[in-house]
Amino acid sequence: MAASGIGASDIISATVGGAKYGVTLLWALALGAFSKFVLTEGLARWQLATGTTLLEGWARHLPRWVLVVFVGYLVLWAIAVSGALVSGCGLAIENITHGAIPRSWGAFAQAVVAFGFIYAARADGFSRVMKPLIVVMFLSIVACAALTFREPAAALKGLLVPSIPTGGGAYVLSLIGGIGGSLTLLSYNYLLRDESKSAPRSLRSVRLDLAMAYLFTAVFGLAVMLIANRVFHAAGVAITDQQVVSRMADQLAAITGPVGFQIYSIGFWAAVLASLFGVWQTVPGIFADCHSLLRRLPQPERDAAMRPSSWQYRAALAFMALASVPFAFLGRPLLVVVGFTILGSLFIPFLAGTLLYLNNRVPWASTIRRNNAATNAVLILVLLLFLIVAALGIFG
């Protein structure tokens, strides 16, 4: 779950936010990670109480047009996330090789490798590859942040005192939408099913899982922003597409020696590759489930469609892989990634609204599934935050 949610979007949105505004928007990263915990816990409670995924809940208890609109959004989001992750992989390999492998062809090659790996990998093989990538990306980025950390008072203020600087509304959405994933939150329903966690008694362990995942996510995102603050904002250097990764690594090398360059470069590469693997492994299952729900297939056929060997799953995987290819050759990887995080953030208020409705509706609400007052308050806060930030962006 953490690997699917952390990747190019987290690193680059946090880098851009830290480069432009220093530590002022640390609170947005922390709030984003906490809100993702609340949202994912809500959809997990729905599944443990009803035995159905949230997608099934939308199909059964909301107007049919909601699922149709969601499928349209899913298609756009899948194109954007594939482009963003492949662009991030290209930036990573170009940086590690000092330009010997161009960004575009490095991105294309890694997209081919990722497609082949997901197409052929079994669940246990997938897990064996993902775990070391997760460990490498976390330890390397946090180590770099520790080596460059300065001004703890300013960082603490940025974490605890919310403020939106002039022109910063879009970046707040980018940070909240990027940290910990957006639509990939739905994949937790299928991870629960794969782990045979289907009863209310699993709620405690689910909450512990999610608390660990989003604490991991928050620390990772905050570390990236602190590095960007030192390298770009504090140094008075404007961030560009060409410098978003290389400048960070070069500055770390200037501070810590060559080891800093290698630690950051490998950590960035591990993060974006793990996210590419994670998203391409889980999101085709959401496509397959949407296809089955729209066609109103019986449960046995729905279960078969979500298997990695089904034609629906493989068609969705091929679509995401092919959609990523043009982005590998675009010259604006920074714009691609930030644009994706803003598009992804739009899913968050939709998810919050549906959880407020489904997990509070009395006729079918059970004790475990009904939101408590604190959860409802956070979901309402998420909705209000997006409305306020959107208004600031539109009306200044």
Could you walk me through the main structural features you see in this protein, from its secondary elements to its overall organization?
The protein has about 400 residues and is an all-alpha fold. It has a single domain, classed as Amino acid/polyamine transporter I (Up-down Bundle). The model has no long low-confidence stretch (mean pLDDT about 80).
Overall mean pLDDT: 82
Biggest beta sheet attributes: none
Share of β-strand residues: under 5%
CATH topology: Amino acid/polyamine transporter I
CATH C-level name? Mainly Alpha
Give the name of the CATH architecture: Up-down Bundle
Instruction: List segments where confidence is low: pLDDT < 50 over at least 5 consecutive residues.
Output: none
Principal-axis shape: globular
Keywords:
mainly alpha, 396 residues, globular
What's the layout of helices and strands?
Elements: H1 2-5, H2 8-21, H3 26-50, H4 54-61, H5 64-96, H6 103-120, H7 123-148, H8 152-160, H9 169-178, H10 187-194, H11 203-233, H12 246-256, H13 258-294, H14 299-305, H15 311-328, H16 333-345, H17 347-358, H18 373-395
Helix pairs in contact: 2-9, 2-11, 2-16, 3-8, 3-9, 3-11, 3-17, 3-18, 5-6, 5-13, 5-15, 5-16, 6-13, 6-15, 7-11, 7-13, 9-16, 9-18, 11-12, 12-13, 13-14, 13-15, 17-18
